[in-house]
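Why predict the complex rather than its parts? Because the way molecules touch one another can change local conformation, and only a joint prediction can capture that. The input here totals 396 residues.
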Amino acid sequence: MARMGLTAERVTLVGAELADEVGLEHVTMSAVARRLGVKDASLYAHVRNLDDLRGRIALLAADEKTIRIAEATAGRSGREALVAYANAWRGYAHDHPGRYTATQTPMEIDPELAARAAGPRRAIELTYSMLRAYRLDEPDLTDAVRLMRSTLHGFVSLEAAGGFAHSRPAQATWLRCLDALHTLLEHWPEHEHEGDPA
Amino acid sequence: MARMGLTAERVTLVGAELADEVGLEHVTMSAVARRLGVKDASLYAHVRNLDDLRGRIALLAADEKTIRIAEATAGRSGREALVAYANAWRGYAHDHPGRYTATQTPMEIDPELAARAAGPRRAIELTYSMLRAYRLDEPDLTDAVRLMRSTLHGFVSLEAAGGFAHSRPAQATWLRCLDALHTLLEHWPEHEHEGDPA
DNA sequence: TTGTGAAACCTAGGGGCATTAGGTATATCC
DNA sequence: GGATATACCTAATGCCCCTAGGTTTCACAA
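Output of the joint prediction:
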């Protein structure tokens, strides 16, 4: 009956650790309570329910990932920044697979809580400012941001799901993808649909 | 007590329908049994357990998606084939969100069953042959295939998770991404790391 | 027609998990 | 030292996964 000093943050952190170890889908109230040496019911004083817990893990992950990317890209620009950004993204996904997948859930979280989390918002700003070196104007900038996020997330996600056969090391493909992304951003194609002669 | 004519295929199909309606994570033995008008235990005569059912849904989805892509790309080549391929991919994900996410699971399925499923294998062949029009040699071909899968999956996945703000319609970005992918494949960058002068 | 074996389906039950209601202990502040 | 908020607990409900073992139905042959 000794006080364990539980808080929503501590519960969330243990949930995040568990997610990385056994997968997000196995993060259960019972498992978190067990690890904290506490009964299931006790968690409900700090966290609304399982969905809420998962949302908090997602927010935590978004914050951590953003910080990691910010640190990696600080003081760099152009291609160097792009590579640092991408490697930080992939590195986070590798180090924290459970947290990373939490990031992917549609986020039906308490709006008040979401508002206090700087992660997602700052992540977007970061990406935009990083890509500004490529001198794209809207709406191309937005498209470029989306393309980049798609590619990075898709790669990391397929990699985690075992989607790449072992015929060629994923790392080699990764480097080529970054090359490709860089040259693509440098030579962003003009619209070719409307008014394309020949 | 009337026979319902259950088979593994029927159970899988109902599971897939359920997945599209309520999300893969809510596909439960009980829910499938309810929809079939049968008791939970009856399903275990056809499907080993819940994981097995999910694996079968994944395999079904892979097959369906492959067929859809094959039909869309049949008789086309080059840019047209690329666009048809990508649109078929995205279309399947839109029409069958639950099945599509099933595709993403690491697949710990009965090897004997997996061997009989042509989907995944054929999907790879299809992609390779579609990209052959861009005249890439190995290992660039493999890298290109992986990049394309990453981008398509990433886009569709972010889109489904509500990852794109409503500032710009996703469809517009999608078209630009296909443009980008196409020009990228046409001007696949040479290696720039080793021996790049200037 | 009837017997037989294989499926198809059932009842019963154990065990895990999520969640709520309501109780007891503990720290804090006057 | 008592009031109060808070941390944690016990108890109970209900859903879900899964197993064991029984019963009904079907196809087919004697």
